[in-house]
Amino acid sequence: FVFFSCKPEKEPRVLNLPKTDLSQADLIPKPALLNASYSAFPLDQFTAIQTAPDSLGFEEVGIFLSEKIKDRTQLQISVNTEFPEQESVIYIQQSDSLSKINNESYALKINKDSIILSAASASAAFRGVQTLRQLMPMKASDSIINYPVWPIASGTINDTPFFEYRGAMLDVARHFFTVEDVKKYIDLLAYYKYNVLHLHLTDDQGWRIEIKSWPKLTEIGGATEVGTEPGGFYTQDDYKAIVAYAAKNHMTIVPEVDMPGHTNAASVAYPILNGNGKTPEIYRGTHVGFSTFDTRKDTVYQFIDDVVREISAITPGPYFHIGGDESHVTQKDDYIYFVNKVEQIVQKYDKKMIGWDEVATADIDTSSVVQFWQSKENAELAVTKNLKVIMSPAKKAYLDMKYDLKSEYGLNWAGYVPVDTAYVWKPEAYENIPRENILGIEAPLWSETISTISELEYLAFPRAIGYAELNWSLPEQRDWENYKVRLGNQAPFLESMDVNYYPSPLIDWK
Ligand code: TNX
Asked: Is the pLDDT assigned to residue 107 strictly greater than 80?
């Protein structure tokens, strides 16, 4: 046989692909409906991608798929070439009937010579593309023909998310993580159908986002972090690059400026903000709850107005997170006064406010969202006030908790969170919070004990993969025994991405 150097001659192909079983695929999250048809689509040099011409954003999704196919297989798959001569085509098309179900619903029909991905929206198509990526073998099938083929198991999939908000949080304040680190985290989260990345941008130990009208925030607050490391910060252009990268991955960035507590770094830069009567000093430790803004000073609200305005202007997503946790040295009435005022500022810049569960004690609007992390009472208060809740209970969903006694990184104030504990719980039926109030799970990764991307990966993976399934898949589709096999089979992918995951002994890693 011949090796083709340029475009191969078209020839009728009689491919004898192996029998497949789509129902045995290691998909995470598990799709809502799946039917196997026991043949295969030959992904190879004769494959092309065609996307609906008039549908916004679909071509970009096709290009994304082509890039990912190239990364894994070296194949150059064309997208929307004018006269496709290819014999096996992946069509990506818009479907009005799916958009009536959910904005992220998609359907896949995988046949012997075509794949049809129908999707409610470009975001839905993007989710379907992740499913396809997970169905692509890591290695070509070598024995079947004289050029490489990556057979994709045939059948149909109909899929739709259970929760609309599928989030992860990264604390870049205790330790700074570069734009490249954040992009890698986005790559991994997007593969498992996350759609939100919340960035905890400020805390006692550092301020990580350039605010042009208050430059000392990053000049001073950007130069410190926990321990002796040098800190760092995002220029507004860096932040825009993160937002754009997230958007390409159909993920929303939620910026957080934590206040009135957790504000020591801001007060070191501008002591006028400080409300605890002390001259603030740089803080490189890991205690919480000792700092506060002065909640009765107009300058403080002028400052917050500038910060919210500048960040909102470069944040296309609907949310602005104001923190609000552990303000232990703020008087209760001052705290309530503060949250009420800051909510108005957030709304003035057309954002919806999110706050940690303590904000439920203020008189907040039903458009605001409460993030349950510790207090069941606050979460229940949020429900009685008809607020939406993001589920981040520390005992189940904190990525910075140690796996067990022997974990190298992490904390244990909420207990140990081994891989099964992280997966075996029902976010839709936790602490009496009704399903209707729940937006979804967000898994926070606080960075007191980690300062590199590989340490980040060690805590986030594999647990973050489990939250992806709890967020996306139907409750009746979730099952630990079945999940742990699929999780073990993620190892080749994680290794191909150079992810320093924690090889939990509960899992049989492939
Ligand atoms: C509590 S969770 C905090 C953070 C810490 C974290 C460590 C929350 C709203 N506040 O300030 O980093 O515990 O696990």
From this structure: yes
